[in-house]
Design goal:
By secondary structure, this protein is α/β, with parallel strands linked by helices. It has 2 domains: 230 residues, Rossmann fold (3-Layer(aba) Sandwich); 169 residues, Rossmann fold, CATH 3.40.50. Helix content is 46%, strand content 13%. The chain contains 17 helices and 10 strands. The strands form 2 sheets. Strands 1-10-9-7-8 form a 5-stranded mixed sheet, with helices on both faces. Helix 13 links the parallel strand 7 and strand 8. The chain starts with a strand and ends with a helix. The relative contact order is 0.16. Bound molecules: 5-phosphoarabinonic acid. The site of 5-phosphoarabinonic acid has 14 residues, from loops.
Length: 441
């Protein structure tokens, strides 16, 4: 597809031998023939699993509702503070940072996604509350971090020289469409509301109002974001699954993890704007696939641990491990072909600088790309499994395609592992214990 270039390395990935000697390419063909229409199988689960995210790229009504509210709010406010955590924040942050460029910046968007006192102090100092709006996002409507942070920030907003109606007009609550504490509060206090659709889970919600509203406010073309996602989604409907990159990525991960000695999957991200897409992916993959029990009742617990590294910086801290440490990691090189305001290196004329002459006149984007290729080739030469995803240009449509690619790949991988990829039973226990501590003390 034009919006993304995806390449699976031949020698080190497709020809890599799984336990028992079967090359990965052969195992992929076998998996394809054994489970020949996994997408239909996914659709069969629509009544049982929250699969509404599959339809979001085509859901114009949410986009229109979010854009209208964003435009209305933007007439009074220049900044937006989002209170949310996990699936209610990571996607928004990832897209915002991918598209907030130095020469054509988006409107300021702050995200309170922690209860770290220093993050809150920094937010209090940095955001301009006199011209800010608040968007509190919580599907459950009662998450500790989100609600604590939101009421703290609301109090600061209330200390501005605004009457009650003006304050209420600056708050948007994005939450469950019908129930929960936050929905009730919004009703009582006259805040605008947006839905987190009941059939869309947190980590799959970036293209729901959870992400669409703050991104529209910031100035992202959400229509293009959805268009890119829809193009990726169309591949699942129109291509044989073995040609669909989302299926391919899922199958590569599944086979290498279950039969190829791979226990970690690393996104090696070249280009800082893309870095937070790595954090978004980490949650998506980890919370969706690591399940103690399979759907058939058998033991699960298998899924490659998602990791993120930042090129070129981490070349200088992690590459030794990647090259000569355990061969238990799959490497995905994630980058873009061009960068805004790319400029060049100009060396002063000086005989002493001759050893650096190869840098002279090179654009920084060229240097980044050369480092990315150099690191990839070295890993390939060391026999490490590698694939690449390149955004030909960093725009909302390509980012939308990238998001949908990984959401689909995660859903396919869930079916391959035989687990429910749409719940997260393992995160509840720590929340209960935390609450007990706070109620007792
Ligand atoms: O993916 C998930 O379900 C989680 O990361 C949630 O999004 C996160 O815990 C926040 O939950 P809520 O939106 O209910 O506040």
């Amino acid at each position: 597809m034009d919006l993304l270039k995806i390449k699976l390395d031949q020698a080190c990935l497709l020809e890599r031998e799984l336990i028992g000697g079967q090359p990965l390419a052969e195992a992929l063909a076998q998996l394809d023939s054994e489970q020949s229409d996994l997408f239909s199988e996914l659709l069969d689960h629509q009544d049982e699993w929250p699969l509404g995210w599959l339809h979001l790229p085509e859901h114009d009504a949410y986009a229109a509702q979010c854009q209208e509210l964003a435009d209305r709010l933007a007439a009074q406010c220049e900044e937006l503070i989002v209170c949310g955590i996990g699936g209610s924040a990571l996607g928004t942050q990832a897209v915002y940072h991918a598209l907030d460029w130095p020469v054509t910046p988006l409107k300021p968007l702050w995200v309170q996604d922690n209860i770290d006192p220093s993050q809150l102090a920094w937010l209090r100092e940095s955001a301009d509350f006199s011209r800010a709006a608040l968007n509190v996002i919580s599907k459950s409507g009662g998450t500790l971090e989100t609600m604590a942070g939101f009421f703290h920030l609301l109090e600061i907003l209330e200390s501005e020289d605004l009457d009650d109606a003006e304050i209420a007009a600056r708050v948007v609550a994005t939450t469950d469409p019908s129930g929960g504490l936050l929905r009730q509060l919004a009703r009582d206090r006259g805040w605008a509301t947006l839905p987190v659709p009941a059939d869309v889970g947190g980590r799959f919600s970036v293209l729901a109002p959870v992400g669409l509203f703050p991104l529209a406010f910031a100035g992202v073309d959400i229509g293009e974001l959805l268009r890119g996602a829809a193009e990726m989604q169309a591949l699942a409907y129109n291509l044989p699954q073995r040609e669909n990159p989302a299926w391919q990525l899922a199958a590569v991960h599944y086979l290498l993890n279950t039969r190829g000695g791979i226990s970690e999957t690393l996104h090696y991200i070249y280009g800082d704007p893309l870095a937070q897409l790595g954090d978004w992916f980490r949650q998506l993959w980890a919370e969706s696939l690591a399940k103690a029990t399979r759907l058939d009742g058998g033991p699960g617990g298998q899924c490659a641990t998602p990791l993120v590294a930042r090129g070129t910086t981490d070349q200088h801290s992690q590459n030794q491990l990647y090259m000569e440490g355990p061969d238990n990691r799959l490497y995905g090189f994630i980058t873009a072909d061009s960068w805004e305001a790319d400029t060049g290196v100009i060396l002063p004329e000086d005989e002493a600088l001759k050893p650096l002459a190869y840098l002279d006149g090179r654009r920084f984007g060229e240097l980044l790309s050369a480092c990315c290729r150099g690191t990839r080739d070295a890993l390939v030469a060391a026999g490490r499994p590698v694939y690449e995803i390149t955004l030909p240009s960093l725009n909302p449509a390509s980012v939308g395609a990238y998001l949908q690619l990984w959401m689909l790949a995660t859903a396919y991988a869930g079916l391959m592992y035989g687990v429910n990829a749409f719940n997260q039973p393992g995160v509840e226990h720590s929340k209960q214990i935390t609450r007990q501590y706070l109620e007792q003390d």
